[in-house]
Amino acid sequence: MAIRFAKLKCPLVLWDVNEKGNEETLAMCKEYGVTVKTYKIDLCDRDDVYSVANKVKQEVGQIDILVNNAGIVTGKKILNCPDHMMTKTMEVNCMAHFWTVKSFLPDMMKRNHGHIVTVASSAGFIGVSGLADYCASKFAAVGFEESLRFELDSQGKDGIHTTVVCPFFINTGMFEGAKTRFPLVLPVLEQEYVAKKIVEAVLCNQTILCIPKILYIFYAIKGLIPHEPGFVVSKYLGAHNLMDTFVGRQKRE
Length: 253
Prior knowledge:
The chain is α/β, with parallel strands linked by helices. It contains 8 helices and 6 strands; from the N terminus they run H-E-H-E-H-E-H-E-H-E-H-E-H-H.
């Protein structure tokens, strides 16, 4: 996404807990002749978020597009997942959104101009076995974006747009090993394709982006049919076994 925004000549501010990875992204983006600033940050630390946000305002200025994209997954069933990992999942995947939005939304509201992107997940609409903490965090992110959108509308801030992104598994290594029962219907998505669709959604102020498009149908079905038939359909599509072969991102030397 950073590279695609760089191609559009957008000045960039990159936040990451991984300094090396952040600097690599900076180098790739600078090839397009844009200004890029990087900051190391722990999104689990509310005070750190507020502190780094203040540095950005002083050193860069106002932020027009805020993309909340950080995410982690444990991939463990609820009784096998350590408490501290559940807490961290909620902090990164959900609570960090509160702190970043509270940092940059006031300036957007003064100008009635801006865009907030919430990268959630298809697991923010449909529960998946083995992803209780992850689904909880993504359901929360989806609800947060919707409430924020309504709140902005109620205050007449029609110049501030929001986009919630709900993709299926993306080939980043984060869900390595997880398998879909029907890969032609629900394929594992390539990073470049998802980044392209997200940036396009921002450019046209699209409110909800589901990838692939068949997810819109699944969500509609879930809302229309009773629980028991919905449970059977979900099981048939493999939602109960997606994580049986999960290994996650492996550390590289």
